[in-house]
Specification:
This protein is α/β, with parallel strands linked by helices and 378 residues long. The chain is 39% helix and 16% strand. The protein has a 7-stranded parallel sheet with strand order 3-2-1-4-5-9-14, with helices on both faces.
Amino acid sequence: MKKVLITGGSGLIGTSLALQLLSKGYEVIVLDNLLEQIHGQDPTRTSPLFQKIKGKVDFFQGNVCRKTDWEKVLPGVEVVVHLAAETGTGQSMYEISRYVDVNIAGTGHLLDILANKKTNVQKVIIASSRSIYGEGKYFSKELGIVYPGHRNAEDMSRGDFEVKYPGNISPLELLATDENSKIHPSSVYGITKQNQEQMIMCVCKSLGIHGITLRFQNVYGAGQSLKNPYTGILSIFSTLIKNNKPINIYEDGTESRDFVYMADVATSIILCIEKDEANGQIMNVGTGVATSVLDVAKILCKKYNIEVPINITGNFRLGDIRHNYADISKVKSLLGFEPQIDFGTGMTLFTDWVNEQAIMASKYEYSVREMKSRGLLK
């Protein structure tokens, strides 16, 4: 039996992973600060996520920013799954110290302990993100494979949202982003995830510990926070729909993402725990399918049988990418990973769960005002 520590284990991925591990006979310890932005004001009583694992795991409410909290939970642990992080590209652009403190310094505390104290840790699995790729991989008829940089705010102000590349003339063709693609994050969040994975892969190798990086696409699923207005368009749109409020879609609505269900993500982590082939590897985890934001809004309205105005605003957020979807051939070939839940099935599971919840007041307008006040939303 292995003892597994999951940081951020009361989150969407963490709870799904914890339950799967428990069903397989693992001993699970969770370190989580039960952040109000995700879990509400009384998380131990009212957070749907925390209720999934309450009384089932060895739970410790603490903070990865405190080295002493790490020291309390690491004894006897053989595998660390480091999920704890501040998430949200937009918010990361103005709460910079917070994102750096949690994502980079918090990871540094773990590695400092592993480097300087005797532990039983054999593997560290870090949750990285597709955000490190920035715009991802494209094909140019004139230039071949290219990796476009940040889009120009002047172009987007004119309603031209497509990515550009110097010297290219014809429209760029979107390709699946593989692990060898250029790393050039366009947000502070992406930068911190890049730092996290580099730290893990570098230090763990020097210590004889197996470091593993999983670069997740957009993770969603039943139980994800409906309180957090900064991440997860499925939750944000669902709360707006349930409150009969219009959905204001940025750009032209055709921007797309690769949505992967939480249970599939948890399965990929377990494969990394159990298979030596994962050791020392960096792998994408997604579905390999891109879905537009406009399609997401339409599907949600249909699932809830509630019609609200869907407005294509032409607004845009600085630092947002246009498209990104994963090439998952590496995780398939090395670990035998296959996503089991397609987007249609996942949306049914998600919306059925939302229908069982009390209708939350939407805080999205507040987050929009924050971004506008800082010049990040145009």
